[in-house]
Amino acid sequence: MSDQLKFIVEKLNKEPFKKNFNLITFDSLESMQLLQLLSDVLGEIDPKHVVDIREELPEQTAKRMLCLLGILKYKPPGGTSDLSTFRQGLVTGSKPVIHPVLHWLLQRTNELKKRAYLARFLIRVDVPMEFLQDDAVADTNRQYEELMEAFKNLHKECEQLKTSGFSTAEIRRDITAMEEEKDQLIKRVERLKKRVETVQNHQRMLETARQLRVEKEREESLAQQKQEQKNQLFHAEQRLQRVQLQLKDMRHAAVDSKPETCCSVVESVLCLVKRGFRLTSPQLSQAAF
User: Fold this and answer.
1) Between the CA of residue 92 and those of 18, 25, 49, 53, 81, what are the distances in Å?
2) Helices (H), the chain
3) Residue 176 above 50 pLDDT?
């Protein structure tokens, strides 16, 4: 129990609570103070529960806390058999009831914040079947369920982006750096323009430089085309060699064969030669060009 109290006090003394408790002052809290403390922790998890319990009836406070604890899936230590005792403990601010709840909440605050946030959008509203007989109600309920599914998918994508190393801060820094580099380049170009303008016939020289750049780009394009044609010629020669080998094998197979077989072989050979010519002639003509 002392370890539990130490953990609670340690967490409550940190951000965002900053309560400045010690074991003695925490253990000496009155029931109303303890209930307000529990309400404050629940309010940190779900802002809708930032409430001054003095403005609520005890039953309202217990009902509100029970509702959120149910959404957060808190299970009292005694199980379902002691639910009435647990509810009464929330009404009266009983330490044996409040302390375990605080310990459980403070162990997983960030996880519970996400759960409470999702619950606002993913807890289904049970519409009685007799109401769903109305077309307008049924259509609204269908749209509600579709929007819920869309929210699930968007939230999943958002979580994946958060864990994928994607950082908007890094992108902003990169954009800022590129903008600064762009400004430097613009200033450099402006300085070079001013220097060039002082030279005689600078317009003609600029035109010559532009033509030189165009010709270099054309030279690179022609070199690339030449390499592509060489590759095409190489593959065409390989196909031609394969056809010639097949022709040689057919000639050997035709030796000592019947006239009908010879005619068939000749036809096959002619077909292979024609196909080889069709495969090689376009590439050869391009290479020759």
Assistant:
1) 25, 19, 19, 12, 19
2) 2-12, 23-27, 31-45, 58-71, 83-92, 95-107, 109-122, 129-132, 135-163, 168-197, 202-254, 259-288
3) yes
